[in-house]
Design a protein that fits this description.
The complex is a heterodimer of chains A (about 350) and B (about 300).
Chain A lengths: L2 E5 L5 H25 L4 H10 L5 H26 L7 H18 L8 H27 L3 H21 L34 H18 L1 H11 L1 H6 L4 H28 L10 H11 L4 H25 L5 H16 L1 H4 E5 L8
Antiparallel strand pairs in A: 1-2
Chain B lengths: L2 H30 L7 H19 L2 H25 L4 H19 L13 E3 L9 H6 E3 H19 L1 H11 L1 H6 L4 H27 L11 H11 L4 H23 L6 H5 L1 H14 L2 H7 L14
Antiparallel strand pairs in B: 1-2
The chains are: A mainly alpha (about 350), B mainly alpha (about 300).
Chain lengths: ~350, ~300
C-alpha cells in the first residue's frame, strides 16, 4: 500500500471546517500521552483536566468568564489578521485598557453613579485603541514592522501598569501591597446567575463578537479587508487605501483588548493588580486562527481555549499537574491546526499513481 | 566618570550582547534563505532551560551547549516541517513556536527555579590579557563569548566568500530561479532554519548557564524579539548585527548602572528602555522604505514549494 499526496483542484471547503476539529482531537490525544508520561492515570487526568471543571453550573459560568476576553480579543484581532496586519500586542492593549478603566473606578470610588461602568468601558476602549494606535502610526508613517512594535509595547505596557500600581494607584491603606483599592459596587459588573460568577461582561463579549461579525461580513470596510488579505494588488487597483486598513486592523484589536481589560478588572478581579491577564492577549491569537478568523468559529474556539485554562487550574489542584501544561496545549493546538490546514489544498491518496493518458 | 567603571560597563555590555549575537546571526542565516521564523523567543527559552538542566545534571558546559543547541534546532524543525513541507503561513507558525516554547520551557523548568549554577569561568588569554586596558577589554571573556566572535567571522565568510553562501542568498532572493538551476531549495531552507534554531538555542544557553546563571521562568524577556528587530536594524548584514547586539547589550546594562549613579528612577521605567530603544531604532531604520526593500531577501516570508508553481 502506498500513501501519496496529491494537490486538490480547488481548496476543500469541508477540510477548512474539519481542520480545527482534527487539531482539537490531536491535541486531546497528545494530552493523554503527556499525562501518561507524567505518571498520571490518563483517564483520571483527562477527567480532571477536561470534564471536572465544567460539570456543574458554577464551572460553566467560569468557562464563559474565561472565554469572554478570548472571544472578544480574538474577533478584534481577526479583523487585522484577515488583511495580513499582525497585531500581536493585545496583551499590552489589554493592560492599558485595564489601566484606563481602573483609573475611572479609583477616581469615582466614593460615588455610586450608574455612569461609572459605561465610563470605565469607554475609557478602557480608548486606552486599548491608543496603545494600538502607536504601531499603526509607526507602520503607516515610518513603515515600521507592526509585529515587532506591537510586541515590544506589550513589555512596556505591563511595566507601566506595574509601575503605577506600585506607585500612584496603590491603595493608601493597603499595607504597601502593590494593588489598588477594591472597586465600589458601582464599578463591578453585576452577577447574572445566582451561584456562579457569571457577570454582565459575558454579554458584552457576545455583543462584541456579533458586532465583529456584522462588520467583517456585512460592511464595505470588512469587504475591503477581505480583498486586501487575499490579493493586496487587486485591493490597491480597486482604490482601497491600505493605510486605512492598517488603522482599522490594529485599532479593532486594541478596542477589543481594551474592553476585555475592563471586563477583567470589573469582573472577577475587582481591583487593579500589577498583572491582570494570564496571557489572554497571546492565547487570543490562537483563538483567532483556530476559529478560522470568523467570529462564529472564534466563539467556539474561545470556549475550547477557556477550557484549557480551567483544566490547567483544576489539574493543578486535583492531580498536582503543573499548570504550565496549559501553555503546551495552546501551542500544540496551533501547530496541529497549521499542519491540518495542509489538507485544505492537498489530499492523501492510497495506492500508486494512476497512469494518465497514453 | 571613572575610567575603570567605564571599562567595566563596556565589558558587561559585551556579555549582555552575546545572546543577541547568537540568536540574531542564526536568524540572519534563516532569513537570508527567505524564511522568516518569528519563533526565536520560544527557541531561546527552550534552549535556555534544556542547557540549564544539562549543566545542572552533568556539570559539563560542552554537554549543556550541545543539548541547548539540539533543543533549539528540534523546535525549529517543527517550524520547518510546517512552513516548508506543509506550506503553512510563516508568521502564524513562528508565533505558534514562540507560544509553545514559552509553555514548554516553563513546564521543563518547574523543578529548576531555585538552583544556581557556578557559571562559566573567564579565560585570560596568555600574554594578551596582560596588556593594559585592551587586554581586559578583548582577552578575558568566557569561552562562549569568544565562540560568538568566531561565529560572526564564520557567518560573514560563509555568506560573502563561499559558494554555498552565494547559493543560500540566491535562494532567498529568487527561489524559483535557484530551483531551475538545480538547487534543492527546500533542503537548503531546512538547513538554514535548523541552523537558526540551534543558534537561538545557544543564545538561550548563554543566558541561563553563563550570563545569569540560573533559571527564571520567561527569563529571555523579549531578547528573542529584539534579535528579530536586530536583523532588520542591521539590514541583513552580519557586521551591523554585531554592532546592534552590543548596542542593545549596553542598553540592557545601562539600566543597572543608572541607579548606581544616584539617579532616582523607578526600576520599571528603566526596564522599559531596551523595548523602547528597539522601537525607536526600528522606526529610524524603516523610515526610508528603500533601505528595507533593497536589503531584505526578496522572497522573505513568502511560501515556496517547487511542486506548487
Amino acid at each position: 500500500m502506498l500513501l501519496r499526496i496529491e494537490p486538490r483542484s480547488e481548496p476543500s471547503k469541508t477540510m477548512k471546517y474539519m481542520s480545527p476539529l482534527i487539531a482539537a482531537v490531536l491535541m486531546l490525544i497528545s494530552g493523554i500521552i503527556i499525562f501518561t508520561l507524567l505518571g498520571k492515570n490518563p483517564v483520571e487526568a483527562f477527567h480532571a483536566f477536561f470534564i471536572e471543571p465544567v460539570n456543574d453550573l458554577y464551572g460553566i459560568g467560569e468557562l464563559f468568564i474565561k472565554a469572554s476576553p478570548l472571544m472578544l480579543i480574538g474577533t478584534g484581532l481577526a479583523i487585522g489578521f484577515r488583511a495580513s496586519i499582525w497585531n500581536i500586542g493585545a496583551e499590552g492593549q489589554l493592560a492599558i485598557g485595564a489601566l484606563f478603566g481602573g483609573y475611572i473606578a479609583i477616581l469615582f470610588n466614593d460615588s455610586n453613579g450608574f455612569f461609572i461602568l459605561p465610563l470605565m468601558l469607554l475609557s478602557g476602549a480608548v486606552g486599548g485603541m491608543l496603545w494600538a494606535a502607536i504601531p499603526a502610526f509607526l507602520k503607516t508613517v515610518f513603515n515600521a514592522n507592526e509585529i515587532l512594535v506591537s510586541l515590544m509595547l506589550n513589555y512596556v505596557a505591563l511595566l507601566l501598569l506595574a509601575l503605577l500600581v506600585h506607585g500612584p494607584l496603590r491603595d493608601p491603606n493597603g499595607y504597601g501591597f502593590p494593588q489598588s483599592v477594591l472597586f465600589a459596587d458601582s464599578a463591578i459588573l453585576p452577577i447574572l446567575v445566582e451561584g456562579t460568577r457569571l457577570h454582565l461582561g459575558v454579554f458584552i463579549a457576545f455583543a462584541g463578537v456579533f458586532v465583529g461579525w456584522i462588520f467583517l461580513l456585512k460592511s464595505f470596510a470588512g469587504f475591503q479587508i477581505q480583498v486586501a488579505g487575499l490579493a493586496q494588488k487587486a485591493a490597491s487597483y480597486a482604490g482601497f487605501q491600505y493605510k486605512k486598513l492598517i488603522w482599522i486592523g490594529l485599532l479593532s484589536g486594541g478596542l477589543a483588548a481594551g474592553i476585555a481589560g475592563v471586563l477583567e478588572i470589573a469582573g472577577p478581579i475587582g481591583q487593579l493588580l500589577p498583572t491582570v491577564s494570564p496571557g489572554y492577549g497571546y492565547a487570543a491569537i490562537i483563538v483567532a486562527f483556530v476559529g478560522r478568523l470568523h467570529p462564529g468559529g472564534i466563539f467556539l474556539s474561545s470556549l475550547l481555549m477557556a477550557l484549557l485554562y480551567l483544566g490547567g487550574e483544576s489539574g493543578q489542584m486535583n492531580l498536582d499537574l503543573p499548570s504550565a501544561v496549559t501553555g503546551i496545549f495552546q501551542g500544540l493546538l496551533l501547530f496541529y491546526l497549521l499542519a491540518a490546514d495542509f489538507l485544505i489544498n492537498y489530499r492523501i491518496c492510497i495506492g500508486a499513481l494512476k497512469k494518465e493518458g497514453i | 566618570m571613572d575610567f575603570d567603571i567605564f571599562l567595566q560597563i563596556l565589558i558587561a555590555a559585551v556579555a549582555a550582547g552575546t545572546p543577541f549575537v547568537y540568536a540574531a546571526l542564526g536568524e540572519l542565516i534563516t532569513e537570508k534563505s527567505g524564511v522568516l521564523n518569528l519563533g526565536v523567543e520560544g527557541m531561546m527559552l527552550v534552549g535556555a532551560i534544556s542547557g540549564f538542566i544539562a549543566m545542572a545534571k552533568t556539570g559539563s558546559l560542552l554537554v549543556a551547549v550541545f543539548v541547548g543547541m539540539s533543543a533549539g534546532a528540534l523546535l525549529s524543525g517543527i517550524f520547518a516541517v510546517l512552513t516548508l513541507t506543509l506550506m503553512a503561513n510563516q508568521v502564524a507558525s513562528g508565533l505558534a513556536l514562540t507560544i509553545f516554547g514559552v509553555g514548554l520551557s516553563a513546564f521543563l523548568g518547574l523543578e529548576y527555579t531555585s538552583i544556581a549554577l557556578p557559571g562559566v569561568p573567564e579565560i585570560n588569554l596568555p600574554l594578551l590579557a596582560k596588556i593594559p586596558v585592551i587586554g581586559k577589554l578583548f582577552f578575558s571573556f568566557d569561552i562562549l563569548i569568544y565562540c560568538s566572535g568566531l561565529l560572526f567571522m564564520a557567518v560573514s565568510w560563509f555568506l560573502y566568500k563561499s559558494k554555498a553562501g552565494l547559493v543560500l542568498r540566491g535562494i532567498g532572493e529568487a527561489p524559483k530561479s535557484a530551483h531551475a538551476l538545480g538547487y534543492n531549495v527546500i533542503k537548503i531552507r531546512y538547513m538554514a532554519v535548523l541552523f537558526g534554531g540551534a543558534m537561538a538555542g545557544l543564545g538561550g544557553v548563554y543566558l541561563s548557564v553563563a550570563y545569569t546563571p540560573m533559571w527564571v521562568e520567561g527569563m529571555v524577556a523579549g531578547r528573542g524579539w529584539v534579535s528579530l528587530a536586530l536583523v532588520v536594524f542591521a539590514t541583513w548584514r552580519p557586521a551591523r548585527v554585531m554592532f546592534g547586539a552590543y548596542f542593545f547589550g549596553a542598553i540592557t546594562i545601562a539600566q543597572f548602572h543608572i541607579q548606581g549613579f544616584g539617579f532616582d528612577i523607578p526600576a520599571q521605567l528603566l526596564s522599559m528602555m531596551p523595548y523602547i530603544a528597539t522601537i525607536i531604532v526600528l522606526v529610524l531604520i524603516s523610515r526610508n522604505q528603500n533601505t528595507i526593500r533593497l536589503n531584505s531577501p526578496a522572497s522573505l516570508g513568502i511560501t515556496y514549494h517547487p511542486d506548487n508553481q
